[in-house]
Amino acid sequence: MDFDLTEEQSLIKDQLDRLLKDRYAFEDRKKYMAAAEGFSPDMWSAYAEMGLMALPFAEEHGGIGGGPVDTMIVMESFGRVLALEPYFATVVLGGGFLRAGASDEQKAELIPGIADGSAKYAFAQMERGARYDLAHVSTVAKRDGSGWTLSGAKSLVLHGDSADKLIVTARTAGKPGDEAGVGVFVVDASAEGVSRRGYPTQDGLRAAEISFENARADHVLGEAGNGMPLVRAVVDQAVAALSAEAVGVMSAMHALTVDYIKVRKQFGVAIGQFQVLQHKAVDMFIATEQMRSIAMFATMMADSDDATERARAMHAAKAELGRGGKLAGENAIQLHGGVGMTAEYAVSHYFKRLTMMNTLFGDGDWHLRKLAAMGGLFDKAA
Amino acid sequence: MDLRFTPEENAFRDEVRAFLAENLDPAVHEKLKSRDYAGKADLVAWTRILNAHGWGAPHWPVEYGGTGWDPMRQYIFLEELQKFPAPQPLAFGVNMVGPVIYTFGSKAQKERFLPRIRNLDDWWCQGFSEPGSGSDLASLKTRAVRDGDHYVVNGQKTWTTMAQHADWIFCLVRTDIAAKKQEGISFLLIDMKTPGIEVRPIVTMDGGAEVNEVFLTDVRVPVENLVGEENKGWDYAKFLLGNERTNIARIGVSKQRIARIRELAALEFSDGRPLIEDERFREKLAAIEIDLKALELTQLRVVAADAKRGNTGKPDPASSILKIKGSEIQQATTHLLMEVMGPYALPYQPQDEVGRNEPFDGPDYAAPTAPSYFNNRKVSIYGGSNEIQKNIIAKAVLGL
Predict the structure, then answer these.
(1) How many Cβ pairs closer than 8 A exist between chain A and B?
(2) Which of A24, A253, B75, B86 might form a disulfide with A81, Cβ 3.0–4.6 angstroms?
(3) Chain-centre distance for alpha carbon A276
(4) How, if at all, do strands B124-127 and B168-174 pair?
(5) What is the value of pTM for the model shown?
(6) Which of A251, A286, A369 should be substituted to probe chain B, the one whose Cβ sees the most B Cβ atoms within 10 Å?
(7) Which residues of B are catalytically annotated?
(8) Closest listed residue to residue A167, CA positions, set A135, A129, A210
(9) Which of B14, B20, B297, B316 should one mutate to test binding to chain A, selecting the residue with the greatest count of A CBs within 10 A?
């Protein structure tokens, strides 16, 4: 068992943290958020130059050959500054689909675009009424000659408005909820029949409602009617990445809170001297460290071929994100008092991000229920 | 980063498991599984088996009879003992006073005491708490006054676990009443057979009497039984309390209890189906498991950090979590076991060490459930209550 980063990983982390320290202060973030894209194209280029986009891809496809631990490192650092750029949507989700689902030809065609930062991706999966059921897909894929056309409406597509390419789940057979009959397609965001309406999310990111009207898919990933295992595998990797991001969000939020109660004075003393506040700060610390541990567990399991054991780990991590994130986030606001309520001060933005992360790919209670239904975490002799 | 155990570590785990299966008396195994504890004779016999195999005090330095295992192997060994379950070596000896003696004690003390601790020839108990000194331990009042070649000790200790079995007690005593409270304390080793020592049991709410009051009246202790320097006892006590990091979370104990919960919840029916099929029950169990899995990784982070830099005796920031979270989880599992038993937890059955001799009105396995839940309220109180632990984290880790 080894918790250390490799030399290469340490280098990546140091370099990224330095970049973010220089160019991602909270005031910078406000400016980036106000840009047309809702994030900073300059930072996006800087990440690409650093090689972050190429990180998880094999070297033969222009990548660097990193694994889940590299993604964990990057996501945690992004979490710490509440980075707005669509790294998660593009590299973790989009890239995840290409790595796990694309043919060699497709990889050769599509991965270089992600790796060099020129192509942004979004995962168009959610539909009205689907809630957290990944198989609740009613968007239809129809055979059209040698290819496919898609029709239907997708909702809450994270960074869907800025994406160049969309990964779309659509049904080739069956009805919403069926595990079989779902295909995973790559659609050019500017293709005919695709219309998008972008909007901001509560946590300062962007999402879009996207409709498809006989829109032509450029690629199908894997077997058209059997896409769900691929979807589940990639979403599991995404949950591991989100868990790592949550660690970053929670640690930064905790540091901010502890710093604040050291300087805020009431009754003539720093309020951090009051035991009741100290204990709340400790509760936040414990929640953060427990999140760090369970995020490591999720990272370790992220590329496991054992779908059941992998799912257990992700349910556990996401349930803990929901529980611990709420505890830490609400305490962060409470310990800040009035200033925690303001939009001007950073802490509320951390709280909002954590709150919204809970709703992505299943909230804490949903994952706990799933884990319980599959027999819990330790049903094998652990 | 690779969170898998190495093949060597897995082989070691198998070796420990095989040893336990081969050497532990099945009757003792069963007693631990159903009743959570073994008696004195069981522990003595088992410790001697371990010691004969060289495993009496695995984490000690090799020169004092330790194994030379790295912290990860020490952790695996303890976890396997707990999960099996097998009796764990008596903490007061091998985990508490032993390391104090080999770190601060005289050559004569090392030679005299350490082999007997490993073999459980001497049963040790801990004389720290006093009626007026719980969380504020340094306020202790038991006095030791030098009189020639002896200290004369007067005072009272309390919550002294298993003092009724003890051959020796290690005590914090006040040797300088003028000094600041932490600076006038010394660390004395006292033979329980010395005249003037009286042990009175304290019956706890679970019906057991594992803790005692120990009264010391004009107890004459040879000065050679002073550990280290006079008035430096507080430093040794802090060392003792901070020294225990591989076991404080008791991950294996909670894993074993979760396995037990699963086993019994499949036997107990609620509204016509096994309780284990009840969604709400399963969610509660799953929530505890998540907490435990996270804590296990937190524990392993601490162990790995120790292995890497060598045990400096300085607590890792993450280690402060282990006591709090570990005790919360232990309590949650004992509570859930209560829920499994439901009404069958109700009948009271007096405990004794040799086993029961009265028939129990209900499933046999239900008898220890409520006592175990009641008894486990202690784990968030002893060794520095969880509130004290939070004070420590606030100060030492958060800088508040």
Answers:
(1) 138
(2) A24
(3) 34
(4) parallel
(5) 0.94
(6) A286
(7) 244
(8) A210
(9) B297
